[in-house]
Design goal:
Layout lengths: L1 E5 L9 E4 L9 E11 L1 H8 L14 E2 L3 E9 L11 E5 L8 E5 L3 E3 L6 H22 L6 E4 L5 H12 L3 E6 L2 H9 L4 E4 L5 H8 L5 E6 L6 H6 L1 E9 L13 H5 L4 E3 L10 H17 L6 E6 L3 H9 L6 E5 L2
Parallel strand pairs: 9-10, 9-12, 10-11, 12-13, 13-14, 15-16
Antiparallel strand pairs: 1-2, 1-4, 3-5, 3-7, 3-16, 5-6, 6-8
Helix pairs in contact: 2-3, 2-8
Length: about 325
């Protein structure tokens, strides 16, 4: 079968187009014929080696890339009863989706309803589940809550804005340019602004009578995190759920006290998908919202497996607004 693999870490040049054997499912696993795979920053970070020492995401080179996908079950391993051949399924944070077939742990798999295409399922399962646990479990937004969403035009950012609005929150959003600001407004953000080298924090303080917001969702890291502290109210919460601009390596916890006794967390999705029932519950809520139109997700980039280098470059250079997928079968 065709697969995209890496033998070493690096830039797009380390992506290998390989022909490998179709794997066989073991106990607690299923073999899936992959229809589509999501293209995510986690794929780029895997390629770059950022997870080489991770305990939460134990993926190491050599490996087949792709941590999100959708398709049809071909066969199941011993004692698997929750799914059967022919079932339409989607999964995330299980690597190997950049291939024609993938072996996936059953506890990472969600059934996909007939109302949702494999394209949409592959685009939604990771970012939708991520936004869902951030809003529901971490921030616990309620009517009247205030929050700031950085990178609001990105894949997770767009869903965060929409889920926060569904909870009745007032949403502030940051983007890097006017075109991206228009996307955030279309998703329902109440107040949209540019980063302006950290001046967003001053603007939010002005807009909230000097108080700041209850919660900040910061996926950028180094370039925004300290200014995110300034944008947060006393005893508020800063959720650093990504490090697209790099990690902040010199943070002293003392700064959190000086900024107003803030709470700072760096959660990871794997810890909020502890079992198959939770995987299915989050997926069901996201798929239902997509089906009834209360959540919109645009698949704005479609690439063949042979175009994986182009897909990675578009994401790294921020040329792709909305979600990208690889069309595999």
């Amino acid at each position: 079968m065709r697969a995209i693999r890496i033998e070493q870490y690096g830039g797009p040049e380390v992506l290998l187009h390989a022909e490998i054997e179709i794997p066989s499912p073991g106990p607690g696993e299923a073999l899936v014929h992959v229809a589509c795979a999501g293209v995510n920053f986690m794929d780029i970070h895997t390629r770059q080696g950022k997870y080489r020492n991770s305990r939460t995401y134990p993926v190491r080179a050599p490996c087949t890339l792709g941590m999100e996908g959708a398709g049809a079950v071909v066969s199941v391993g011993p004692e698997v009863t929750s799914i059967k051949p022919g079932d339409r399924v989607a999964w995330c944070i299980s690597w190997g989706a950049y291939a024609e077939f993938a072996v996936v742990p059953v506890e990472r798999i969600a059934h996909v309803p007939q109302t949702i295409s494999c394209e949409l399922a592959a685009a939604a399962i990771f970012q939708g589940s991520t936004a869902h646990y951030l809003v529901e479990d971490i921030a616990r937004l309620r009517p009247g809550s205030t929050c700031l969403v950085h990178a609001a035009s990105g894949g997770i950012g767009q869903i965060l804005v929409q889920l926060a609005k569904r909870q009745g929150a007032v949403v502030y959003a940051t983007t890097s340019n006017d075109a991206k600001a228009a996307i955030a407004r279309k998703c329902g953000a109440d107040h949209v602004m540019h980063y302006e080298n950290g001046r967003f924090a001053d603007r939010i303080r002005e807009a909230t009578a000097g108080q700041g917001v209850d919660v900040v969702f910061d996926a950028l890291g180094r370039t925004t995190l300290r200014d995110s502290f300034r944008a947060t109210r006393t005893r508020g919460l800063v959720v650093n759920h990504g490090s697209v601009s790099g990690s902040l390596a010199d943070l002293d916890p003392y700064e959190l006290g000086e900024a107003g006794s803030l709470f700072l967390t760096r959660p990871r999705l794997a810890d909020y998908l502890p079992d198959g029932a939770t995987v299915q519950r989050r997926a069901d809520e996201i798929f239902a919202a997509l089906a009834d139109g209360t959540l919109r997700l645009e698949v704005s980039g479609r690439y063949g497996l042979e175009q994986v280098e182009i897909a990675h470059a578009a994401l790294e250079e921020r040329r792709q607004l909305g979600k990208s997928i690889l069309l595999i079968s």
